[in-house]
Amino acid sequence: MDRHGSSAAACASDSNPAYSGLQDQELGQAALEVLEQLLRDRSVGASGGGQERKRGQRDLLLEAWGRRNPVTGKGTGAGRYPQDWLHQYQQQVEEAVRLHFPSLPPEDSPQQQLHTYLRQVQEVVQGELLRLAPVLKEAGLLATLIDKYHVHTMSQLELLLQKNLNKDQTFILLRWTLKTYLSNVLGHPDVAADVTGVMDMMLLADWLQKAKTKALQSAQCLSNVVRTAGAVSPFLQMEIQRICLTQLHIFIKGFIALEEKHMTGGKGAGGEKIPHLFRTINRELSCTASEEKCVTGEKGAGEERILPLFRTISTCRELRLLVVQFASEAQTDAAATVGLLEELHSRATQQLLHSAAHNVEVSLQRYFREDSIDLGEVLSVDLKVLFLYLSKEPDIQEDCLDTVYSQVVSLYLKHLLLANQSHLERMWGNVGEAIKEDALVLHEVFSQQNKDVENKSVLLLKVSSVLSFTNEETFHSTCNELLTHFPQVSREQVKKLILWKDRLSRQQVKAVLDTTTTESPWQRLFTVWRQCSRSVVSSV
Questions:
Q1: Which of 488, 476, 486 is closest to 515 using CA atoms?
Q2: pTM here?
Q3: pLDDT digits (tens, 9 = 90+) for 189-210
Q4: Residue 504: CB partners within 8 Å, gap ≥ 6?
Q5: Cβ atoms of residues 174 and 268 within 8 Å
Q6: Three-state secondary-structure class, residue 87
């Protein structure tokens, strides 16, 4: 319905004796009959496409019913319709969706039939949303239409996925869902804003994970084909290996393109922009399986990014092993494909660590502002998902733990120095001693994951020593160690730390810094060696 004419239409409906004299039940029943015809008959236009048109009895009746049940809020709100009436309307929508939706292609049908079916789904869903949105949105009934079409679409895609699809068909389905369904159908500018707040993200997330898993399984099945061919003849096995390797390359390119769209937040490998709806959904996809939800509990900031990244890392590793195996058996080079997988693996790992560090940084900002926060408990919660999945990925666990541990220690120092010193003293009393205790807590959190993890908290123990020194020589030596042994610590940070100690003047701080050396550990080793050499020579 044209919004510019809503006031005039409202007046008309009030003055229309055919509706103003009806009881609520009669008017509601009449509205249901009109909606049933509108929903079932796709030839009935809902609006004039922005052009001025004469409003029919249908529009006046729906508006009269809407005025009896005013919409609360904006957009697709369901209004204050009676529950029994709303239930009947929802049943009408479900029946209309089933009526209009195309039948699934038969088992083992040609690839072209899948293309045809998906095109028909697009025509139905997009066509019905665009046809009905103007009238139903004005009446506060659009949310039901969007929800029912989305739920039915995902159920049909689920049934398709259960069919005997090959890897090419699985990727066609994945590409259609991500590009056509999300971007062109639900992302159409006339309905995208309404869709974003209504559609069930979990249905989509569950389906996407199942589709990617099936695609990977299809690729792994190639190994069985090769082994079977080997039982016939070595020559046949060699030919099959070459064919399978070619198919695997195609599969991997598709896999990488899909993962890059997720990881770049709305741009594909070629930099093409993805509509706003896709970026919104990409942000909101989170832990999808019920097992994951039980394990993780409440999600912290950024956790919705961690689980998909772990799956990407794991899949990259499996595909790399498969490619190397096929290339070795076929006596051919697969360095380019392996390189692409390693690049994606590296990017996913970097994003994984960034997401984990972001969780911790948000909590550390609170930790230095608020009293009675348990650092160990906060870290355990923020890193729970990371630790859980690292325990299942022994190949990357050690490196990832070391990196995250270093990042957490650096973030601790960063926000410690950004905090108000007087405020910390009021909360903690002896700040140096509190930092020492935190260093022990930090190491305990990470050593529980790997008892052999390198103690990165030594940095914080040095910071504690600077604030708690009793000997001037030790003080100078510790400051020097911070600058020479810990490359992540800047001279400015050491300077600010020294300023904290007994409120030293800037001249005193400069004097301390001037006595410290900026030699690297290797330079210091050479200096010690040279001094030892001189001692030996002088003693001879």
A1: 476
A2: 0.53
A3: 888 888 877 777 778 777 877 8
A4: 498, 512
A5: no
A6: helix
Residues 312-360 pLDDT 10s: 887 788 788 888 877 776 677 778 888 888 888 888 888 888 888 888 8
Is residue 533 predicted with pLDDT exceeding 60?
Answer: no
φ/ψ of 452, rounded to 5, equals: -95, 10
Question: What are the residues whose beta carbons fall under 8 Å from the beta carbon of 93, sequence distance 6 or more?
Answer: 39, 144, 145, 148
DSSP classification of residue 270: T
Residue in the structure block whose two tokens are 């990017």: 347
pLDDT averaged over the chain? 74
Give the pLDDT confidence score for residue 509 in this predicted structure: 64
User: Angle 167-175/111-138 helices, nearest 10 degrees?
Assistant: 20
- What b-and-e string marks burial along 175-200, b requiring 16 or more CB atoms within 10 Å of the CB? ebbbbbbbbebbbbeebbebbbebbe
Q: What integer is the mean pLDDT of 121-145?
A: 89
DSSP state of 502: G
Phi/psi region, residue 503 (left: phi>0; alpha: psi -120 to 50; beta: rest), is: left
Identify whether the C-beta of residue 209 lies closer than 8 Å to the C-beta of residue 311.
Answer: yes
Give the rounded distance of the alpha carbon of 468 from its chain centre.
43
Q: Report, as an integer, the average pLDDT of 289-293.
A: 35
Q: What amino acid is encoded at 295 in this protein? A: V
* Helix segments in 383-488, DSSP class H: 384-390, 394-418, 421-428, 431-447, 458-468, 472-485
Q: For 16, what's the count of Cα atoms within 13 Å in the CB-facing half-sphere?
A: 20
Higher per-residue pLDDT: 455 or 292: 455
CA atoms within 13 A on the CB side of 377: 4
168 within 8 A of 110, measured Cβ to Cβ: no
The C-alpha atoms of residue 273 and residue 260 are separated, in whole angstroms, by 12
Q: How many CA atoms lie within 13 A of 302 on its CB side?
A: 19
Q: What is the 3-state secondary structure (H, E, C) of 163-227?
A: CCCCHHHHHHHHHHHHHHHHHHHCCCCCCHHHHHCCCCHHHHHHHHHHHHHHHHHHHHHHHHHHH
CA distance 319 to 259: 14
